[in-house]
């Protein structure tokens, strides 16, 4: 394959039920110069057999990395990134269905934007169609379904809320080489990559849908209708919200530790202030959030976020000194 090819990174775990639909949708892509790199995360069902059959019969370039270790999706996807050498990289979930134009459409945008931004680190992502386990449409727009605004792509915005879905994105080699592949302190791989892109490159979004995003009870992460009574209670009452905000602060600490040498003075100051938020008094916390525009999407999220910030204590600092961007 030439250097313009795309690497598709697929992490699997007990995916026998939906994996055939995904693989069929990859075969149906209008863009053909892709390589599929798969890491199985310790499946105990027929996943490996399905993957081996696909590799033997498809005629596509397929690499399967088998492992008994269950790393979870974040670490598994970051591990996969170490095996990628293509100019463009995409991430793939085992239970989705890609629309036939997905690779070609996102690749065209990425190449055009690279010219516009002089080959800077680049992330392009799209909206998704939300479906149920039978692939029947629940919502024509994941962003509307989740009350997500893709225009919010600045560093301060992405430090507190991710709006980039991993299975909908494509990144260029410049960005891929900047991604630290240690998962220490990282909440999720797509969120981590989005923060890097916001700080050191460009994030481009398109309202076009490129994927059928399947929802079922076994999803690790998924879409849930945002404006529901249950969701409101979860956001405003559940104590785990405080823990989730602490994790964003820990993630900011890790990011600052690993990438401070790549950041400008203003970015270092912004991240440092957010990372030190639990150490200042409540009034200074609130003033910082409003003055530096640390907001989330939607009133409910912001009320929950503000309450969590008021009640947080200083998080445990977790630093991985060995892992550095390439």
TrEMBL record:
State the superkingdom: Bacteria
Leader sequence range is none
Annotated TM spans: none
Q: Where is the Glycosyltransferase 2-like domain?
A: 8-172
Instruction: Output the CDD domains linked to this UniProt entry.
Output: GT_2_like_d (cd04196)
- Family membership, please give it: Belongs to the glycosyltransferase 2 family.
Q: What is this protein called?
A: Glycosyltransferase 2-like domain-containing protein
């Amino acid at each position: 394959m030439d250097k313009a090819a795309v690497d598709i990174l697929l992490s699997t775990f007990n995916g026998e039920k939906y994996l055939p639909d995904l693989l069929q949708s990859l075969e149906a892509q209008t863009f053909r110069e892709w390589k599929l790199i798969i890491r199985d995360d310790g499946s105990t069902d027929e996943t490996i057999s399905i993957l081996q059959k696909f590799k033997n019969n498809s005629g596509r370039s397929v690499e399967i990395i088998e492992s008994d270790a269950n790393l979870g999706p974040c670490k598994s996807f970051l591990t996969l990134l170490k095996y990628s050498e293509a100019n463009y990289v995409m991430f793939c979930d085992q239970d989705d269905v890609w629309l036939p134009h997905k690779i070609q459409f996102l690749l065209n945008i990425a190449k055009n934007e690279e010219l516009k931004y002089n080959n800077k680190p680049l992330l392009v992502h799209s909206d998704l169609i939300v479906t149920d386990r039978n692939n029947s449409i629940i919502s024509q727009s994941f962003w509307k379904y989740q009350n997500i605004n893709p225009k919010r792509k600045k560093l301060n915005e992405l430090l507190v809320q991710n709006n980039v879905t991993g299975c909908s994105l494509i990144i260029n080699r410049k960005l891929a080489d900047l991604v630290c592949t240690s998962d220490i302190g990282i909440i999720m791989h797509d969120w981590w990559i989005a923060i890097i892109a916001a700080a050191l490159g460009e994030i481009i979004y398109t309202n076009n849908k490129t994927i059928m995003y399947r929802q079922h009870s076994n999803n690790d992460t998924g879409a849930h209708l945002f404006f529901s009574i249950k969701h409101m209670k979860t956001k405003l009452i559940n104590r785990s919200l405080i823990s989730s905000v602490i994790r964003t602060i820990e993630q900011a600490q890790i990011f600052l530790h690993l990438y401070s040498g790549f950041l400008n003075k203003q970015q270092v100051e912004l991240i440092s202030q957010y990372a030190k938020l639990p150490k200042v008094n409540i009034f200074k916390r609130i003033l910082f959030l409003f003055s530096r525009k640390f907001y989330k999407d939607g009133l409910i999220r912001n009320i929950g976020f503000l309450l969590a910030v008021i009640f947080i204590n200083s998080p445990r600092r977790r630093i991985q000194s060995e892992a550095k961007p390439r």
